[in-house]
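Quick one, tokens below:
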């Protein structure tokens, strides 16, 4: 079937539980379903592809991409569906990567996240990081934490996003959402302003650079709960990424600061279910215990996995522990578990 307009394409994608759509002028459309990419045949014309991309953009956005600029946009469609789109250029043609967002924010229980995630959302202060590769559900996990806070506590939540993905109506909490590029120029600028806006909780869409990392840690030090994401695949790697992003002469100081404010790292990945009819989340949990803090300060990050294994009674576990459990319960295949594991050899023995 040929999809001649964006509405038809979106209806097909949603009916088939797709997470992403890729439109490239001059070639086929591709969709991603449960992590697998599928090319749709036949290809639309170049004009049809270009019109699909332009159809969900505002006029000033069309002018920006027509002038050769890339664009990140969060868009509410005609039926209430929100999408996150990145418009870019390749081989002198326009292309778009579109993430289809859930229309409602799923709960911890629906996402099958461990109970300790709820404890981290209830922290009065400190830094909580959700990490994982692209497309691993980090934004959805953060959204479920904000939604839980919104339903259960009277706190002021300030989000800094690029772009805004989920929109939260006020419930018990008051939530203000600022979009980088529209409401504020950068993450770091928004974080500095946030300290004067009386927030209890600050959500930072992504800690992309040292300036943002430093501002987020400062906000956590001054009594706020800061939630953010990083593109790392283990708790130990997360610690190293924070340190490596810091100039050499400031790394000892950032180690001390980070060890004092970190409350937890949730590392996650999405794995296809054994019946190939969905995906399930596998997690690694590190909590900011005094022992973990000591390892970070003493530059002994290599020992973090051992300490996580020893702290299972407090809610910590390694990614391999969760993968082995999912394999044992028949939720995922051993082959898929090995594919996403950080240590396939160890996982093979565990299975």
């Amino acid at each position: 079937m040929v999809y001649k307009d964006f509405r038809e394409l979106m209806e097909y994608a949603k009916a088939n539980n797709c997470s992403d759509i890729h439109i490239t002028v001059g070639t086929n459309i591709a969709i991603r379903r449960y992590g697998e990419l599928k090319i749709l045949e036949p290809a639309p014309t170049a004009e049809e592809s270009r019109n699909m991309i332009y159809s969900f953009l505002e006029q000033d956005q069309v002018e920006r991409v027509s002038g050769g600029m890339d664009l990140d946009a969060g868009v509410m469609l005609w039926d209430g569906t929100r999408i996150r789109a990145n418009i870019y250029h390749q081989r002198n043609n326009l292309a778009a990567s579109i993430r289809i967002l859930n229309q409602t924010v799923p709960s911890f229980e629906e996402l099958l996240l461990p109970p300790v995630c709820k404890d981290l959302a209830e922290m009065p202060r400190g830094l909580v990081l959700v990490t994982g590769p692209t497309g691993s559900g980090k934004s959805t996990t953060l959204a479920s934490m904000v939604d839980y806070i919104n339903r259960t506590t009277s706190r002021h939540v300030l989000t800094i996003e690029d772009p805004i993905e989920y929109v939260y109506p006020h419930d018990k909490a008051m939530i203000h959402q600022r979009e980088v590029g529209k409401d504020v120029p950068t993450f770091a600028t928004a974080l500095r302003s946030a300290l004067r806006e009386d927030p209890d909780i600050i959500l930072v869409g992504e800690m992309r650079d040292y300036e943002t990392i430093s501002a987020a840690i400062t906000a956590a030090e001054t009594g706020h709960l800061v939630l953010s994401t990083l593109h790392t695949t283990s708790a130990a790697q997360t610690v190293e990424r924070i340190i490596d992003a810091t100039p050499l002469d400031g790394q000892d100081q950032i180690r001390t600061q980070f060890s004092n404010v970190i409350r937890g790292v949730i590392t996650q990945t999405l794995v296809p279910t054994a019946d190939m009819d969905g995906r399930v989340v596998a997690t690694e949990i590190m909590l900011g215990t005094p022992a973990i803090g000591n390892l970070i300060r003493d530059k002994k990050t290599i020992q973090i996995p051992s300490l996580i294994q020893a702290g299972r009674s407090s809610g910590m576990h390694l990614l391999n522990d969760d993968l082995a459990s999912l394999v044992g319960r028949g939720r995922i295949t051993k082959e898929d578990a090995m594919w996403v594991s950080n240590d396939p050899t160890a996982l093979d023995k565990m299975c």
